[in-house]
Amino acid sequence: IAAQDRKIALWNIGVAYTAFLIGTLAGLLQVFIRNDALQLPAWLDYYQILTAHGVLLALVFTTFFIFGFFITGMSKSIGTFGPKVRLFSWIGFAVTLLGTILATVMIVSGQASVLYTFYAPLKASGWFYVGLALWVVGTWISSFALIGHYMVWRRKHKGEHSPLFAFMTITTIIMWIISCLGVVATVLFQYIPWAFGFTDTINVELSRSLFWYFGHPLVYFWLLPAYMAWYLIVPKLLGVKVFSDSLARLSFVLFILFSIPVGFHHQLTEPGISNFWKFLQVVLTFMVIVPSLMTAFSMFATFEISGRKKGATGLFGWFRLLPWKDVRFTSIFIAMAFFIPGGAGGIINASFQLNEVVHNTLWIVGHFHITVGTPVAMTFMGLTFWLIPYLTGRKFTKTMQRLGFVQIITWSIGMLLMSTAQHILGLLGAPRRTAYSGYNDHPAAMEWFDGLLTNHVTMAVGGSILFLSAMILIYIVIMTMFLSPKAERPEDFVEFPLADSDKENTPKFLEQWTIWIGIAFALIFIAYAIPIGDMIQNAPPGSAGFKTW
Ligand code: HAS
Q1: Tally of domains in the chain
Q2: Alpha helices in 229-324 (DSSP H)
Q3: pLDDT, tens digit, for every residue of 26-64?
Q4: Cβ partners under 8 Å of residue 64, min gap 6
Q5: Which of 12, 241, 296, 472 has the greatest CB tally within 10 Å of its CB?
Q6: How does it sit in the membrane (predicted)?
Q7: Which of 280, 319, 349 is the pocket-test mutation for ligand 1 (most atoms within 8 Å of CB)?
Q8: Which domain holds residue 514?
Q9: Are 93 and 49 in contact (CB under 8 A)?
Q10: In this structure, is residue 542 part of a structural domain?
Q11: Does the C-beta of 328 come closer than 6 Å to ligand 1?
Q12: ipTM score above 0.90
């Protein structure tokens, strides 16, 4: 791809890994605080570090990495950016970065210890919310730049299906833009007036609902780029085509429809929403599981087709013949394997009654470490191994490949230890998000930590292994960005592994966005209009929430 496009992608990825470095350091500090092995200085507290950890890894690392990946893939699959697209991509990047810096300064200076979910009643400095608003606006500008690029392509290729990479990027972006409407509304009309003192109080239930309207599709904003790698990169590494172009497109479209009207499944224990609306959103949540099951099916089919091509026989003969020595593949395969328990855990969380058992416990922390922390993160690692050298034109040497294996194996072991402990502790009753990890020496609480896996020491070992792994990754990133030898011979150049996808039988309506956006808004209206209306009507007097009548 063109050098100017590479530059934008590389800056995005560079910021992503800077956030990753600070965020993982905050993670390491956390496990040691829990283990009572570390006393923090007076200016730093547990919640400050927890917020930095969550925001920098879950929000900042992911977002910048995703845009780096999208920019590279869009330039590769539908052509070099025009000057306007390039300009807006830079502006989007700069505004997102400005917002990130402002929010991070507020967190580090102790003025925004409100955790990465930042909803009321916790309150931060108004500037933190301004930072968040800039962050969202920045991502929108970058998104519209990519949409513009896609529209130009469509105008030139009337009646054709867009390449699968572009289709998936646009689907993800559409979902992102619609979902951000909730967070934009609450940040602009509730948090900013409240935090700067223009209003005395805030309508908590409304603000949480608007947050989760955004918060759940947010997790699919992380997941879908990983799915793009599963659908598009993995088959290429296996030497086969995409299993089914229309299945892949349909599964992405289903995310536009069902990933948004489900936010109440994060609020099942909250008193301000009636059971009917919660139940409706639980049903819709079970719909959003379908495209993930389609993805699992598609992956197994891809593995089997590639195995059969190489002569595999029997039910699982293909397993042995997967390209295990290729770190780009192995990383993603482990990512997928983690998503089996990760997804099953999600189904448990979403089940109305079972949620009572797991809500607000360490189980949830375990859940998101084996969804975003491993399936998504390890897919991004698998991408990093070729994406950065592809963009810089440097070699991915044998030593790097070996280090890559050490990195992904340590990450998997660390996550396995830590997340298993978190799941079990959660089931035993250990709450999440508390600095009082000694639970005032309560005898029942002390027993939780007696197990071999649920020991604080085991968790600290898991956390330390993870940090070691993160540092190896940072080393690989720095080498492939700045120091590895430049590729000169054709065989040294790192490729962008993009699989072919047969589009002959793909129905045209899959790319008629108005249909999908229309249905998405209809579903959102059905799921949210009445309960949100109730919340507004019952707003506390004088609150930013919105008007009292
Ligand atoms: Fe979740 C809470 C429900 C998926 C992230 N989730 C969270 C939070 C985060 C998060 C960050 O209903 C915490 C928020 C907070 O701080 O409060 N989640 C679900 C459901 C799914 C789900 C139904 N979550 C994710 C993904 C995330 C993520 C993905 C990040 C990327 N989650 C919940 C609920 C809560 C929740 C409740 C609130 C809990 C509470 O009470 O607070 C589904 O999307 C999952 C569907 C997935 C599958 C798995 C398909 C498997 C595949 C792998 C195939 C493997 C292969 C490899 C091919 C059905 C595709 C083969 C290998 C071999 C070795 C055989």
Answers
A1: 1
A2: 234-238, 245-258, 275-309, 317-320
A3: 999 988 887 777 788 888 888 999 999 999 999 999 999
A4: 12, 13, 15, 16, 19, 96
A5: 12
A6: Multi-pass membrane protein
A7: 349
A8: 3-537
A9: no
A10: no
A11: no
A12: yes
